[in-house]
Design a protein that fits this description.
Helix content: 25-40%
CATH superfamily of the largest domain: tm_1862 like domain
Number of domains: 3
Structural class: alpha/beta
CATH class of the largest domain: Alpha Beta
Shape: globular
Distance between the termini: 76 Å
Radius of gyration: 28 Å
Strand order of the largest sheet: 3-1-4-5-6-7-8
Number of strands: 21
Largest sheet: 7 strands, mixed
CATH topology of the largest domain: pyruvate-formate lyase- activating enzyme
Length: 582
Amino acid sequence: MKILLVTLDSKFIHANLAVRYLKKFCKDIESEEFIIEIKEFTVNQKQEYILSEIFSANADLICFSCYIWNIEYIKELVYIIKQAKKNIKILCGGPEVSFETDKFMKNEPFVDYVVIGEGELTFKEFLLEFKSDNPVLKNISGLAYRENENIVINQYREPINSLDIINYPYEENDKFEDKIIYYESSRGCPFSCSFCMSSIDKKMRTLSIDRVKTDLSMLLNTQARQIKFVDRTFNADYKRSMEIMDYIIEHNKNYMTIHFEITADIINDEFLKYINKLPVNMFQFEIGVQSLNNKTLAEINRHMNIEKLNKVIEGIANGRNVHIHLDLIAGLPYENYATFKESFDGIHKLNAEKIQLGFLKVLKGTQIYEDLNKHEIKYRRLSPYEVICTKYISVDEILILKNIEELVDKYYNEKYFEKSLNYILSNLFIESAFEFYEHFSYYWQQNDLYKMSHSRKKLYRILFEYLKHINKMAEEFVCCLRYDYIFNNQFEDLPDFLNKQAEEKYKPLRRFLSNDDKFKEMYFNETDKEIKIVNGFRIAEIGNDSVLFIYKNKDNIFNRCKTYIINDFIEEKENEQKGKVF
């Protein structure tokens, strides 16, 4: 007998956690006659390819891990599988089928079984019965199934108290080159945000600290790009958090990026000082602000000290060592277009590395789902069930925010336009960053720029043309844009609109300096000298200054490039070389 666990990730770089938990938890019941296999796909792959791979497994039971990003795809796969081979049994599990299960099974008649909620114990008990000659399913908590023409939903299963019984989900020799791998050191959340499914599990449970360290010893030896902790509030116990982070720092020899979701306004001075001493660029903190409107925060049970939030985020940012991602959600109760603008401007001032502008997703089982009528929330009927409009914000306003979200992502989040944006916000849109993105988005609409993709090089040109359009072009802005372009594009020549001659004039001197020992000694440390010096720096005129750009690490926004004003050095070298031909 063969059991096939199938997952469809949103991107190729992701590695699914759920199916690996299930396989590992059931390892002791596997045998030569009872095999459990995983097949991992993405929602971007061709349906025909996925079906071919599934059918080639010749499984007796196919189990799908269901989330908002893959449920529609899975429904269609299930339909095709059952049309082609009706004897194959289908099981679904995951958050997308754990609520209103009866309705789901009525709408999807080809699904035979559903695992509701936390899956490990229910799935294992089910498999033990499934492989028996006379399976008895009525006593398996957390299971729904069909019995003749009826849908039977068994009693609720309480969450696992001791998470240490759950096996390490990955294989010991897994490498995961260039992938994002997920890990959880806790389940549940101490908070009760009305839009979040984690609020449903009222109890927060943790793996023992020794178990976490054992798991991390293996995870940190993979070749993954990033380890993403899925704990909803990693810093709920800050002492425990520091112990885990200390272990990561000591053993992270491959210098992976580690991503945590944290709550900022519960951070105390001790933890803040600890954060400021973390290694540069190793950790990312995602902080769910959601809104700065007090009425909205009260309605969604998001009790937050905004003054402390600002102080903590500014304190973390001052350390210049940890990436901060701040989340806002449009479409929440009592949040209209004007108050959302205030929330955006409030968090924009905090200078986080990324602002993630999201839109409310109405998820079954949450309090917000129960409050649909109260707030006149309309949402899309297909996953991810995103808000269309509410009593407080119109569909037209939501669509404007969608456009703004795209520009924030293109221009703010990647940090390729820092000096240019600072100029614009300091000189042209002093009162509100939101008003700049709003006005810029109108320009994009008027010029049909949203209908096509653009290279980074083109994005510089668009920003340049925008300032010309609003009659605000100034030499100071051109200098800022030229600086950003050279700073972030090591091998791209300056385009004509940024005055190519501002760099060309230094090229003879640059060739000479690439072999000049004094130059290397002054501006390159030992690590810098290991790079190919001739391609490792550029010189350009920025305003009245000659600026040296030394390229460091393109993936490290804190250390992407170092710059020096070298007017005196240039003058000295030019005097030395007068009359010489380079």
